[in-house]
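ok so dumb question maybe but i'm new to this and my supervisor (M.) told me to 'just get the structure for RND transporter' and walked off. so i did the thing. is this what she meant?? sequence i used:
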Amino acid sequence: MPLRKLSYLTLLVLALISALGVYYVAQLRFNYNFNDFYPAGDPDLDYYEQYSKRFGNDNDYVLIGLEAPADGSVFNAPFLARVDSFTRFAQRQRYVEQVTSPTTLTNPVVEGLGVFNIPYLHLDEPARLPADSAIIYRTPGLVGNLFAADGKAVTVLLQTAPDLKKPPGDSLMTSLTTRLTQLGFAEGDYHMAGKLVAQSVFVDRLQREMILFMSLSVLLVTGLLWFTFRTWWGVILPLVVVLGAILWGLGLMSACGVSIDLMTALLPVIMFTVGMSDTIHFITRYVTELGYGAPKSEALRTTIRESGFGSGLSALTTSIGFFTLMTSSIRPIHNFGLFTGISVLLAFVLTFTLLPALLLLLRKPQLRVPRQHGHDWDGVLGRMFRWVLVRRRLVFGLGGLIIAGSIASAMQVRINSALLDDLSEGDPVRQDFGFFEQHFAGVRPFELDLKPANGGTIYDLAVLRQIERVEIYLRQDYGLNFLASPVTIVKSVRKALNGGDVAEYRLPDSEAELRRIVAKVKLFRKLPEFRSLVQPDAREGRITGRMSDVGSIRADAANAKLRTFLAQNIDANILQTRLTGSANLIDKNNENLTRDMIVGMSIDIVMVTLIVLALFRSLRMTAVVLVPNLVPIIVVAGVMGLAGVNMKVSTSIIFTIAFGIAVDDTIHFISKLKLTLLKEPNLFRAVRRTYLMAGKAVIVTSTILVGGFSTLIFSSFDGTFYVGLLIGLTLLFGVVAELTLLPLLILYFYKHRPKEIRQPVAVLGG
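this is what came out, is it supposed to look like this??
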């Protein structure tokens, strides 16, 4: 088949696939599901899913903090009237299953056969509010939960429908904020926290930032391509190839039912820069062949033959770098690794199908700088090569010092994360969550499953005393600022049976008294504050609570001490306990971060080792290739330690991705060296020629990669910011190592035909 017909056929097939990609991309949706960040396949996740079916999810709530006027307290009639009006409004909203509010809270009193619910706040009798406040501040479980300790704010707690998605969640949040504004609460007078708040804000920001990053990347890459090639086709064709790969990748993701989340939102930006590598190597080699005077078709054949090998290997290693993220138990990271890795391979396919087809159909370009006058890059690279040889001791010495310092600094990196770790300290959403940390019990949920042993029930006195012992520890030593449990129910009923006297809020002294109390429990079981604390058959209960978001390091330490306390102080023959809950699952991710990172890096290293061994059949060459690519990783780990950046879910992917991308240029370099050695038996001259041939593409692609990742530093998400900054630094350090350490290591340690390279080595040693 003639080449032009083959080109048209190729373009037709690619256009049809792209049209299918457009169809699926049009159906792509943004999503942020907090539950997706639970460790998939973990036994604790299975346990929690069953637990939540019985007791409900511990994060299906919205906290609404309302501040009193600056010159008063919450105990004034006009303010409480607004709070009550908002409470009534919230109770009528769809997707709101339960509202706990200071204005609807009652103090139950049992008289005869009935229960009288006496309100804590007498809204229609303002004169009683001072006395009401005195009772409230003596009653356990109210201050720090619904009332701020300083009396300047209250909280309204909304229990929402389970796993509420973004559209209905946004509708609910809009209704609530609109009503608050109508009631005269200014933006700074109310604060919201909860999964729905984070879900709404995160998705909206993902959409805005994805557009911002792509726009910045297009501008940056367009400028760099123009500066490099100085031709319209040298700019347009790489953009078409990479945008096609992004389109195919996102279309495949949509076809598989995967939404854009906090991780997969990085795919287009990363692909826009990573996907440029093969196109730049291709066009650079093509222009070089044209400069030698080769016909267009012959130049394309030579380019495909010589660049295809290196580009195929580099695409393989880069995609493997992303595929290794599939070892993560966190679903968003798994999906990000899978579809970004596939997109890298798609970019390679398009580079060697779409690009040649387009170049073949275009007229032969007129090179602005004829070959005989076009030695600018050769001159620059030649001087760089000589400088590296002359300053080899400086390169090795400085490299050794930097590595030693980086290792020492990297030892300071800690694995630590918080629930809102991806938001900066000054972010309004994080400040709202911080409001509840400062004035109320906090936003971090706590769950402890309780099961009586040996056929007992939750309402056995021995079981209740064991639970109370756990409660005391949780308040005094663990750090819970609010908790509720079956003990709360029994104590509340006892208080109600004694006229609502706060002094009677305690466990009964005898089994006989307990039986009288348990007989009345059914009168209280449907109260919002007691619902879902005990199963109807009394065979299982829970301690639920909230605390400050102390971070995973402190939480892990507290959980370890709690487990020790439970093992040493709670009789397993009476009560069995198990720590569970959403916060516990998020903390468990940290246990897997180091493992996932080591597994990912190990797979990368093994694959690179196999590739180098297949090319050179030399263990020395394998070490030579790995060193320049591991050095940047070590240096960036040192930077993290020096800057106090913690390892967390969002930053744990940095090293695996960076290594997979950084090794790309190395693969191009050694594959060109392999081909050069077939024509040039002298190692020194082969390395120099490879340096001149590959140097331009290495510098240009690395500049585009660093620039592309640098656009991520404009993100409002800390995780995305650090991904952009640290991967950019890794690639920057990588190109320096590529152009300094790599040629020296090859010349010193790679033993290729010793008789023919003896003289150049002697020159190096001289």
